[in-house]
Design a protein that fits this description.
- The complex is a heterodimer of chains A (104) and B (169).
- By secondary structure, chain A is an all-alpha fold.
- Helices cover 75% and strands 0% of the residues of chain A.
- Chain A has a single domain, classed as Orthogonal Bundle (Helix Hairpins), CATH 1.10.287.
- Chain B contains 6 helices and no strands.
- Chain B is mainly alpha-helical and 169 residues long.
- Chain B has 2 domains: 123 residues, NADH-ubiquinone/plastoquinone oxidoreductase chain 6, subunit NuoJ (Four Helix Bundle (Hemerythrin (Met), subunit A)); 40 residues.
- Classes of the chains: A mainly alpha (104), B mainly alpha (169).
- Chains A and B meet through helix 1, helix 2 and helix 3 of A and helix 1, helix 2, helix 3, helix 4 and helix 5 of B.
Chain lengths: 104, 169
């Protein structure tokens, strides 16, 4: 038997709030590492939506999606942090507004 | 007010607070610690939904592997303090906050109007949340996707090594 009697909307609204917090972090911070962490917050809020709908519909597929999202997030963190390291070696900065090689 | 509501509200308030600390604090290492707290709170929320496998994966993969990588890079670069969020409300930042807030309000409005009255979870048999059920589904119906994830992780490892290497040969 399912152990919760909390409405589904509570989980959905919570995940929307967390997504907005992550989006504000991505749009306003300059530090590339903090931008990565904000992206992780956004991915996690989507995972919460997936899990709550998976439980709501009684289907395993939502949790498999969460598994795949976690694998993608791990790959993204590895590649992204390697890019940050290469960027720091090249420009001695991790602030994204000081990196304007592609800006005209 | 039952115990369920108490735990849900406690976990969600702590999750939102640690997320705000993550994006608003000055030093990256404080962000990382707050983010670990956030991941643990999300694992607790998954447990209130009786999704044990996802909760354990959350702690193992996110709080264990990914955050160790992030903290390692922060320590390696030995960064100084960034400006905190509230001290530099420029036009661009303000635009970003307004944009994200509008989007969030729209999503919350859509979620709340999903049904006229609050939807409670139906009483399924919870066998579909066990590791056994997820593993069976993963290795029968979704085996192609599972192998594709393995391929993607291999490519990501090779890419990370190539990007971080000083000289290729």
């Amino acid at each position: 038997m399912l152990m919760t009697n909390i409405p589904l909307e509570f989980y959905l609204v919570l995940s929307a709030i967390l997504f907005v917090i992550g989006a504000v972090g991505v749009l306003t911070r300059r530090n590339a590492i903090i931008i990565f962490m904000s992206i992780e917050i956004m991915l996690n809020s989507v995972n919460l939506t997936f899990v709550s709908f998976s439980i709501y519909f009684g289907d395993t597929l939502g949790q498999l999606f969460v598994f795949f999202v976690m694998a993608i997030a791990a790959a993204e963190a590895a590649i992204g942090l390697a890019i940050v390291l290469a960027l720091y070696r090249l420009k001695q900065t991790v602030f994204v507004d000081e990196v304007n090689l592609l800006k005209w | 007010m039952s115990l369920h509501y108490f735990f849900f509200i406690l976990l969600s308030v702590l999750a939102v607070a640690s997320a705000i600390v993550t994006i608003a604090t000055k030093h990256p290492i404080r962000s990382a610690i707050a983010l670990v707290v956030h991941f643990f709170m999300l694992a607790g929320l998954y447990l209130t939904l009786s999704a044990q496998f996802v909760a354990v994966m959350q702690i193992l993969v996110y709080a264990g592997a990914i955050m160790v990588l992030v903290v390692f890079v922060i320590m390696l670069l030995n960064l100084g303090k960034d400006q905190s969020l509230e001290k530099k409300i420029t036009f661009n930042n303000f635009g970003g906050i307004v944009l994200a807030g509008t989007f969030g309000l729209a999503v919350i409005y859509a979620f709340i109007n999903l049904h006229p009255e609050p939807t409670s979870f139906p009483n399924h048999n919870v066998n579909f949340t066990t590791v056994q059920a997820i593993g069976r589904s993963l290795f029968t119906n979704y085996i192609v996707q599972f192998e594709a994830i393995g391929l993607l992780l291999t490519a990501a490892i090779i890419g990370a090594v190539l990007l971080a290497k000083r000289k290729l040969m």
